[in-house]
Structure formats: C-alpha cells, structure tokens
C-alpha cells in the first residue's frame, strides 16, 4: 500500500488514504499538501539504486590494476576499483539469478571463493576500501566468511582517507605456488585482449606487466532478459517456482519466461497435463445393433426414479453416447451429468451422485464391453468391445504383412491390460508404452510373432492419438515447486513445446574493432583481423561468437599457433583439448588460408594467434569448472564461420604479401640483368651510356613519376603502367625559389623557404597525367608520392 | 659456280648483328621494353611458298621480351652472343655450336650463361632468323656430321690451307669425299653423273659402293647419315640446281625416314627460314615405300605406338599432304608394318643393285 501511494505521489498525483498518508507525512516523506518531499525523492533513488546493485555483478567493472605488495613473498593483493558507487556488491552475495545475462559471472560465487581461499590460506580477512564519486571519505571494511554458515561477516567497518577520488579496492592475501606463473601472466595478457577498455597492471617482486587501454569506449551494459523455457535447468526452475508471485502455472510461465504468451503457455500446460496426469483412452461407443445395449444397462442401475424419468434418462444417455465417435471416461461422466440435470428438472426427481456414478459405470461397461450382460460372467467375452476396438487400431498401425493371428494376439493382450488399468483408463504415454511392450513381448514369446521397434512405436502412436487430454486443472505453482517429479514434468513439457527463439539483443559482444585493438596492443604482429558473427541461439540461450587473428611480426613461427579461448570475456586456461573451440580450429584446413599446417590438420604451425570469444547468457561448458566449451553443433558451426571469416582476411593479406615479394624478387633480378644488358649493348654498339629506369618501370607495370625541365618550366609526368587505375598524391618540395603554378589544381604551402606543392591525381591504367609549374632554374626539388606501394612505384626525378 | 647472293662477307654479317643490338639499344633509350619477334617454329606455322616450291615460316610470331625474368635473360644471352660473334668475325675465326656453349661458361655474369646446348643452339637459330644472316656466315658450325659423296664428280674446295682439286671417285678412298661444313666453298668443275642418289644408312651406302653402283649407273651416292645436316642438304640442292641432276632419296620404310626425305625435299621445320637455300623440292622418293613392302614381300617389323603416332602426325603435316603420301601412309597404317633398307638382302646381296633400284629408278623415269 505504501509503495503504490509513494509511486502515485512521485508520479505527481494527489494521494489520499487517511492513515497511510498521515504516517508518510509524519516520516517527512510527504508534505502537508501530500506532495513528495526531497527526502522521499532521495530515499526512492537510493532504493532504486540498491535494487540495481543486487542485479549487477563484476562483469563490467573496469579492472584497473592488479598489484603485488612486498612481504610476505608471493602474496597477491588484488584491487578492483569501480568507477561509480553502484558497483560494490562484494559484501552481499546475490540470491541467484531469476534472469539471465551476458556477463562474466552470474552468482558471485567467484568472488566468494577468492575471499574464502585467501582466508583459508593466509588467515587474513579481505580488506575492502571503497569510495564513491563525490564522497568525502572512503569506507573501509574487513570481511571474512563464516565457514559454518557460509555467510559473510564484516569485522571492521570504518571510514578512512584514500588518495583515489572513487573506486573500490579489494586486498586479498593468499598463498600459492609460483609454478604456473606463465599461465598467470598469460591470463592477465589474455584478459587484456578481450578488455581493451581496461588498464591492467600486475606487479610482482621481479616483474611488472602493464597493459594500457586501447579504447575509452566502455562495453555496452548488457540487458537482462527473462530466461527462455528451453534454457533452464530443473534446479533453476524449482527456484523460480518458489520465488514467483504467480499462483497459476500459466501466469508463472508468462511472467517469468521470455517468449511465452497465453497461447504458448496453454501449449506448455497441455503437454504438462499429458505428462503429469496422462490421457484417458477413448473407445468407440457400441452401436445400436450391438448386444451391449447402453440404454438397458443404464436403466438397470437406476432405481426409484419413476419409469418415465428412468426411461428418458437411459434413452438420452444412450443417444448422446451414440453421437460420439470415441468417448473417454471423463466425457462420459460429463454427458451423464448433463442428461441427469435435464431429467431432474423435467421430472422433478433428484438424480444424486450415487445414481449418476452407477449410470456412468454401467454405460462405461457397455462401451468397454466388460459389462455383465445376461448376468453371466464370461471371461472370454469380458473385453469383447475393447478387443475389437484395439484390434482395428493395431491392424491399422502395423504393417499389412503382419500375420492376422499375431495382430489379434497383440490386440487381445493390450485390451486385457487396458481393462485392468483402473476404471477411468487414464494413462501416461510411458504407461501405454509399457502396455505395448509387455503385450508385444508376450505375443512374441507365445505366438512366435515379431514386433520390432517401428511396429511398437506406431502402435503406441495410434493408441496415444485416440486418447483424450484430461480436463483436470494443472496443479498450482506452490504444489509443483514442492514436488520434484511434477516440476520435472513441467520442465519436460516446456522443452517439448515449440517456442520462438529468445531475443538476441541482450548480448554485448566485444565487437571486431575492439578485438583487433586488443590483439594489437598485446601482440606484436604484422597483421590483425577480427570478425563478429550475428547472434544465434542454441537451446534457450542466445550467443554470439567472435574471432580474431594476429599474424607475423614477433610471433613465434616454429611452434603451434596460440589458441586463445574466451567465454564471456573470461580467458579459459585449462582443458584446452576438450574444448569445442580447439576442436574447430584443428578441423579447419589452414593451408587454404596460406598458413603452415603439417599434415593438413591440427593447430597450424605458424606465427599466428587465433582467438575465439563466445558471449552468451549461458555458455555451455563441459563441466562445472568452466574450463572448456561443450561441443554443441550450433556453437561449433558459428565458431568455424567466425574463424573462417577472419582467416579469409588473413589469406588475402598473405596473398598480397606473397605477390609483393615476388614482385620484389623480379625487380631485384631484372635490376641485375637489365643494367648488364644495357652495358653490353653500349659496348657492342659503341654508343653512350643508357638510362633504363623508364623501361624498368614499364616492365614492372609500375607507376612511373618523371620530372622534365625546360628552362623555367617543370613538368611532372605520372605514367600508369599497371593494369588498374592509380590514385596518387604527389608532393613536390621546391627549395630556393618560389614556384608559380600554371594550373590551379595544386595546393601550395610555404614553410621556411620551402614550398610544398601537392596534387591529387587519378590516372587510369595505361594513361599518363602531366603536372606543370614554373620556377627559376636554381631551385632544388624533391618529389614524394603517396597512395601506392613502394614496390609499384618508380620515381625518376 | 657459286652465286654471290649465297655468300655474305664477314663485315656484312657483323653489321647485321650490330644492327640487332642497336635495335635493343634504341628500345632502352626510348624507355620501351626491349623485345624481339621471332616466327613460331612449329608445324602449325609453316606455309608452302608457291614461287620457290618449298615450305617456309608463316605469319605467327612469338615475342621474347624483357617483361619476364626468363625473357630478359634470353635477351641478355642474345646480346652476349652477339658480342662474341662480332668479335669472332672481326678476327676471322670460327667455332662450333658446342664450343659456344662451353665458352659461355667463361662469361663473368652467371645470368648470361647457357644452361644447355639446346639453348645455345636455338639462340643461334633465333639470331639467324632475326638478323637474316646464315649461321655459316657467323662462322658457327656444327660438329662434323661425316656425310660423304661418292661418284663421278670433280670439284675444287676452298680450304683454310689453300685450294684443293678432288675427284670424288678417283681421288678418294672407299669412304668417299667428306662434305665440308660450308659447301659453298666448293666449286663444281666437271661431272659425268646422271643422277644423285641420297642414302639414309651407312650400311646401304657401303653396299652400293661395294657393288659398284656409282660406276655402273653414273650415280652420285650421297650418304645422308640419318637426318641430314645442313651442309649435306645444301650440297644436294647445289648438285640439283647447278649441275641439273635429278635427286632421289633412298631410306628405310618407316615414318622417321619419310621425315628425312621431307627435310631433303621440303625443308625442315627448324630451318624453314632457310628452306630456299637448303631444300630441293624436286627430290624424289625411291623407297622403301609401304607399297614395296607389299609388292616385294619384304621381311617386316610391326609398327610400334610411336610409329603410329608419327604416321598420324605426318598426315597432319602440311608437307606430306599430297595424294602420293596420303596413300602410302594410309597403306602403312593399314598393314601395320615397316621395313628397313637392308631387308632387301633377304633376296641376296645384289638384289638391291641388280633388281630393286633399277626397277624403281626405271619406274620414276630416272634411268
């Protein structure tokens, strides 16, 4: 009540509710005219923020520095300052997620474990210093976890001074051995790759790793979405059932899950009823010509209701029943009720529940053929009606090649089982399956028949198809939460129902640009590429795969390429061989991408780093230790596509590099052959020395830039001998005299007695462009050309 | 008796070569890519010259250009070779093709050295074509081919050691007169010969000489020694042109031997640029014809796959596209057999000189 009043008041409405408003005014939250006070606004903001606190986790905290302090040896002091006041939820461990989110962690287990581990090994509490932006002092806590109750306990809580304007600092002392130091360094380095927005520092007694930010752009806040029905586990479901405000299953499904509306909820509930209650078998009612006369049977059990009423009642039950093609027990009961109500009214006789039950029983016996007509208890005829019904179904369902006697045998045994299956013939699919199996086994054993898996499956389907869904209401949420088996039925029902895939806009990938930036700052390579795939879905969880590649430079070329694996921005360190990421990388034929891969499979042996990041609301790991990503086909396929996308860029880079190398080799070779040829020609023909630069440029299909002088006139010629057009920027630096431009298409800048003449020209393949200007003869020049690779350029000026 | 047009002086040959080098020089000077056009030397690029009745190169050309490393290297070698040849001509020396190959080893630039003798041989052919100067006038000669002439012919040869007058029957031993590398140094003085008989194999040549065929029929027996060298073909042509003697060719009866006849008569594909100078279109084929194999019931060998391929390729060869050759080749493909000249010995050692040759030459109207 207070909440709604406050909300209304904050919305600007005039609130009126005698006692409550009085109380609020007393507390200074509303003023005399029932308007919200400043205090209320503040309080409300705090409450909202607290709400926010419980829903965030460490994922988006920019990790600023990890720093080791001196003695004792090998004790790490991990500081994690946040930028705003709302980031500190280390003190209170979350209650667990009722929503899913693309984040580093989910439930705060990691930080609790870190605190616990440090406490167990060093015996010291976690020391937390925290200061929000704008506050005068910092808060200081010492915190231990009570290992009996697993609850955090705050030992020291005081204010302190801190040289930081804001942030959070956590100090944990823990013991460890330093054998895995390389992995620790790798972990820090890899973390830096996928968190290019963070500055990370690691100080050790004899090492200092520092990784600067590559971007100021913080990753997008991820949005929480409600879980998808296909993506929850039983434990989570029970937890959700316990926590929900809904009473009905339908409300629960619609309220707590994404992509579930009324229609989908109904479908889930239908499937749930089938699983939980089973269905009722529906049989053909006896026809009028058959000896099982429904009217007679009903009339016999109705007593003391007067002849007319009894006759009409039994007649109408029989007629109504004849309208049914098949009837299930609950349908029959309903039908009898309807007729009884009518007849009651008409004849003013009371048809009590006993009479009605007897009537239903009699009619049902007539339907199933188990009735004791003619007063005889003839076992062989007991299930006559059922048997012929089942026979028709089985005969229809099984192959025509089946021996009729065997079909008869199966039908007979099945009919007997249904007859013995309680009054209402209510069965789950599993129970029907068991009937079919047992009957088929028996028929095989005694009649020497064969009923294979297909025949059994078809028989089961035929029987299940004619069974009617029961009208019972599903159990309420509380009941389901209390019964694990029922909850499991609900989960199965959710999984077997077709539901639209979850929304994918809740994911926050690193993005290809930032992956490339991350690789660029951590690895010294010649080439970088990255790709981010569109979002995809597996089970109920959306996911995005991203890949990055670095190649060449200082990377080690003799050993296998490094494969960096990440899940939600966390480096995966162990179980490399069990991970889907590694499997996919190994399966790719890297030779296609011009990387060295001995044997044509496995991780390429080349100077390369291959990184794969999977962002999802729930990354499927092979185990709870979250070391390796499970081999889910949808995820593997996306990993492959992402890696191939980046690899394609690498391929074209390598191809270009190779062709440049060949071009250089050719140029080198020709640069020895042609001058020798020219010299020999000069000798043989006894003529002056030759200049062969122009010929060389044409041979190499190069862009040739030449300068010609005729008195004061200077002419720069750009001749394009390549097979594609060239867009080049020429800068001519003239020193000693001021140039005058004949045509105005160049820009001129003077600096310290030097004139920078700049042209932008586009020359088509096979064409030439001429640029002219005038300058007095004693000037010096120097031309430089941009926009074309050095290998493809010859400057003869 | 030699004609002036067939000889080129050292100075002229040298100038032609230097002109070629000057072309390359000019291309460089213009800033162009140095290149050289050469007719394509394949079967597909030879055409019949109606005036001369010989087969010469057609219009197809390939370009050696410095645009590629291998092209540039070929041109470099050409320039080095031109330099060498010009010097050789200056000093009036001569060398063999094989010597040129080894000589290139001494050039300071490894890129200019020849990788094989085939390469240097074909380069000389290129230069021959482009400069229009014959190899003989570059003073380049092949290794001695050893081909000989035996018969009633009196000649004067201009040797490096002075003039020699020789009668090719009386002044020589059984081996006959050895044809020099440049037969244009020979002057015909006198002859009583009636016709020229070119023989493919040494064995058959010796048989004819032993049986005194040259004396009996006034024949000039020219030993071709397989595929005839340029000197042998040149001499044969001169015997026909200058002494007006009919020329006949006597070879084995297989596809390879038909090509020997082809190069005597029509000119070879590799030297089609010199066909007018080397080929004797009037030369006639004696045999062994496929027809003879049937008529004389000669001992035979079956045709191998390569023989069949060679015959089929000859059917496509423009030089063999005459009714006579199509008929003979198709007959041979049909009987799937071939015979050697020596198979005639199956009827006795004298059969060839007493029966076969007189019969065939009679049919051809030579005797």
Q: Which helices and strands appear, and what pairs or packs with what?
A:
The complex is a heterodimer of chains A (about 800) and B (about 375).
Chain A: H1 2-10, H2 18-26, H3 38-55, E1 65-68, E2 76-79, H4 109-122, E3 126-131, E4 138-146, E5 151-160, E6 167-171, H5 181-194, E7 200-204, E8 207-211, H6 234-243, H7 249-256, H8 262-276, E9 279-280, E10 282-283, H9 294-301, H10 307-323, E11 327-328, H11 329-347, H12 353-368, H13 384-397, H14 404-419, E12 426-427, H15 429-447, H16 453-466, E13 468-469, H17 477-482, H18 484-496, H19 512-522, E14 527-532, E15 536-538, E16 541-551, E17 562-567, E18 570-572, H20 580-587, E19 608-616, H21 633-685, H22 693-699, E20 703-710, E21 713-720, E22 726-735, E23 740-741, E24 747-751, E25 754-763, E26 768-774, E27 780-786, E28 793-796
Parallel strand pairs in A: 1-7, 17-19, 20-28
Antiparallel strand pairs in A: 1-2, 3-4, 3-6, 4-5, 7-8, 9-12, 9-13, 10-11, 14-16, 15-16, 16-19, 17-18, 20-21, 21-26, 22-25, 22-27, 23-26, 24-25
Chain B: H1 10-29, E1 35-39, E2 46-49, E3 54-57, E4 61-65, H2 69-90, E5 95-96, H3 97-103, H4 117-131, E6 140-141, E7 148-150, E8 153-159, E9 162-167, E10 177-178, E11 186-191, E12 195-199, H5 202-210, H6 213-217, E13 219-223, H7 230-243, E14 247-250, H8 255-265, H9 275-278, E15 284-287, H10 290-295, E16 301-302, H11 305-316, H12 323-335, E17 337-338, H13 351-364
Parallel strand pairs in B: 5-6, 12-13, 12-14, 14-15
Antiparallel strand pairs in B: 1-4, 2-3, 7-10, 7-13, 8-9, 8-11, 16-17
Helix pairs in contact in B: 1-2, 3-4, 11-12
């Amino acid at each position: 009540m207070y909440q709604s009043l406050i909300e209304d008041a904050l919305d600007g409405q005039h609130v009126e509710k005698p006692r409550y408003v009085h109380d609020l005014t007393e507390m200074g939250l509303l003023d005399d005219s029932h308007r919200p006070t400043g205090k209320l606004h503040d309080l409300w903001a705090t409450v909202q923020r607290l709400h926010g606190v419980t829903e965030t986790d460490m994922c988006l905290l920019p990790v600023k520095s990890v720093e080791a302090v001196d003695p004792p040896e090998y004790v790490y002091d991990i500081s994690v300052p946040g930028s705003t006041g709302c980031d500190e939820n280390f003190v209170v461990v979350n209650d667990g997620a009722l929503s899913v989110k693309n984040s580093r962690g989910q439930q705060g287990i990691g930080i609790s474990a870190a605190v616990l581990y440090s406490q167990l090994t060093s015996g010291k509490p976690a020391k937390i210093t925290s200061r929000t932006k704008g506050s005068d002092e910092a808060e200081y806590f010492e915190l231990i976890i009570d290992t009996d109750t697993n609850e955090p306990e705050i030992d020291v809580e005081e204010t302190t001074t801190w040289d930081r304007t804001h942030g959070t600092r956590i100090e944990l002392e823990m013991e460890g051995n330093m054998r895995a130091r390389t992995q620790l360094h790798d972990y820090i380095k890899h973390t830096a790759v996928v968190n290019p927005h963070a500055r990370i520092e690691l100080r050790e007694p004899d090492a200092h790793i520092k990784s600067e930010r590559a971007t100021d752009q913080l990753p997008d806040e991820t949005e929480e979405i409600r879980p998808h029905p296909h993506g929850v586990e039983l434990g989570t479901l029970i937890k959700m059932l316990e926590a929900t405000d809904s009473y009905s299953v339908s409300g629960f499904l619609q309220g707590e899950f994404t992509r579930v509306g009324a229609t989908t909820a109904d479908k889930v509930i239908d499937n749930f009823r089938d699983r939980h209650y089973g269905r009722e078998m529906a049989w053909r009612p006896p026809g009028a010509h058959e000896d099982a006369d429904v009217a007679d049977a009903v009339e016999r059990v109705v007593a003391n209701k007067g002849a007319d009423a009894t006759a009409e009642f039994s007649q109408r039950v029989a007629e109504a029943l004849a309208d049914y093609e098949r009837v299930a027990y609950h349908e029959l009961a309903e039908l009898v009720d309807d007729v009884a109500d009518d007849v009651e009214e008409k004849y003013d006789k009371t048809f009590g529940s006993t009479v009605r039950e007897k009537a239903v029983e009699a009619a049902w016996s007539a339907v199933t053929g188990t009735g004791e007509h003619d007063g005889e208890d003839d076992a062989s005829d007991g299930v006559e009606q059922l048997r012929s019904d089942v026979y028709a179904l089985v005969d229809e369902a099984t192959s025509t090649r089946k021996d009729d006697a065997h079909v008869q045998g199966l039908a007979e045994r099945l009919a007997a089982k249904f007859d013995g299956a309680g009054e209402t013939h209510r069965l789950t699919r599993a129970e029907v399956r068991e009937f079919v199996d047992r009957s088929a086994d028996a028929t095989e054993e005694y009649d020497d028949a064969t009923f294979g898996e297909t025949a059994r499956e078809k028989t089961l389907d035929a029987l299940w198809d004619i069974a009617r869904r029961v009208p019972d209401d599903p159990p309420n949420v509380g009941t389901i939460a209390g019964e694990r088996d029922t909850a499991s039925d609900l989960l199965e029902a959710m999984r077997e129902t077709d539901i639209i895939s979850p929304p994918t806009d809740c994911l926050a990938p690193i993005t290809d640009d930032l992956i490339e930036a991350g690789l660029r700052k951590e690895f010294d390579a010649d080439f970088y590429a990255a790709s981010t795939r569109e979002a995809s879905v597996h089970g109920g969880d959306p996911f995005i795969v991203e890949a990055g590649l670095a190649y060449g430079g200082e990377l080690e070329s003799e050993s296998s390429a490094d494969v960096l694996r990440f899940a939600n921005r966390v480096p995966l360190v162990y179980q490399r061989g069990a991970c889907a990421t590694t499997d996919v990388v190994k399966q790719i034929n890297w030779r296609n991408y011009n990387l060295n891969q001995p044997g044509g499979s496995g991780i390429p042996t080349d100077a390369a780093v291959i990184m794969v990041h999977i962002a999802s609301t729930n990354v499927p790991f092979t185990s709870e230790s979250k070391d390796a990503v499970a081999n889910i086909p949808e995820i593997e396929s996306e990993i492959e596509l992402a890696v191939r996308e980046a690899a394609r860029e690498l391929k074209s880079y390598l191809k270009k590099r190779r062709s440049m190398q060949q071009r250089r080799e050719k140029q080198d070779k020709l640069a020895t052959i042609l001058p020798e040829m020219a010299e020999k020609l000069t000798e043989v023909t006894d003529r002056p020395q030759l200049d062969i630069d122009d010929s060389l440029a044409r041979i190499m299909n190069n862009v040739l830039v030449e300068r010609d002088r005729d008195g004061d006139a200077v002419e720069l010629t750009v001749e394009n001998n390549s097979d594609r057009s060239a867009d080049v920027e020429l800068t001519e630096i003239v020193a000693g005299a001021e140039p005058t431009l004949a045509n105005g298409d160049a820009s001129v800048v003077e600096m310290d007695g030097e004139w920078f003449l700049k042209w932008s020209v586009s020359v088509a393949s096979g064409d030439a462009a001429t640029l002219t200007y005038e300058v007095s003869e004693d000037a010096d020049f120097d031309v430089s050309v941009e926009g074309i690779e050095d290998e493809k350029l010859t400057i003869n000026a | 008796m030699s004609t002036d047009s067939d000889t080129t002086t050292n100075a002229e040959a040298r100038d032609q070569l230097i002109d070629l080098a000057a072309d390359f020089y000019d291309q460089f000077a213009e800033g162009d890519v140095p290149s050289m056009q050469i007719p394509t030397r394949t079967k597909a690029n030879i055409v019949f010259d109606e005036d001369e009745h010989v087969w010469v190169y057609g219009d197809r050309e390939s370009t050696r250009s410095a645009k590629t490393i291998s092209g540039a290297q070929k041109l470099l070698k050409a320039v080095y070779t031109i330099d060498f040849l010009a010097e050789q001509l200056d000093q009036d020396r001569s060398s063999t093709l094989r010597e040129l190959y080894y000589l290139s080893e001494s050039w300071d630039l490894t890129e200019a050295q020849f990788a094989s003798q085939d390469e240097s041989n074909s380069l000389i052919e290129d230069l021959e074509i482009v400069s229009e100067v014959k190899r003989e006038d570059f003073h380049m000669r092949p290794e001695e081919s050893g081909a000989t002439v035996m018969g009633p012919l009196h000649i004067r040869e201009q040797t490096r050691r002075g003039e020699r007058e020789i009668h090719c029957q009386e002044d020589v031993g059984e081996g006959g007169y050895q044809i020099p590398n440049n037969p244009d140094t020979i002057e015909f003085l006198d002859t009583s010969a009636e016709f020229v008989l070119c023989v493919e194999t040494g064995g058959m040549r010796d048989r004819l000489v032993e049986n005194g065929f040259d004396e009996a029929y006034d024949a000039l027996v020219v030993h071709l020694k397989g595929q005839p060298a340029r000197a042998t073909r040149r001499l044969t042509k001169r015997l026909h042109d200058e002494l007006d003697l009919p020329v006949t060719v006597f070879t084995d009866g297989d596809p390879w031997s038909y090509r020997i006849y082809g190069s005597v008569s029509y000119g070879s594909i590799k030297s089609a640029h010199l066909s007018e100078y080397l080929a004797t279109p009037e030369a006639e084929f004696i045999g062994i014809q496929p027809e003879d194999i049937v008529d004389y019931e000669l001992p035979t060998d079956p045709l191998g796959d390569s023989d069949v391929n060679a015959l089929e390729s000859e059917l496509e060869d423009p030089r063999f596209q005459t009714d006579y050759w199509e008929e003979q080749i198709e007959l041979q493909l049909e009987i799937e057999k071939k015979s050697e000249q020596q198979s005639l010995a199956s009827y006795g050692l004298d059969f060839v000189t007493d029966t076969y040759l007189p019969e065939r030459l009679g049919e051809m109207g030579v005797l």
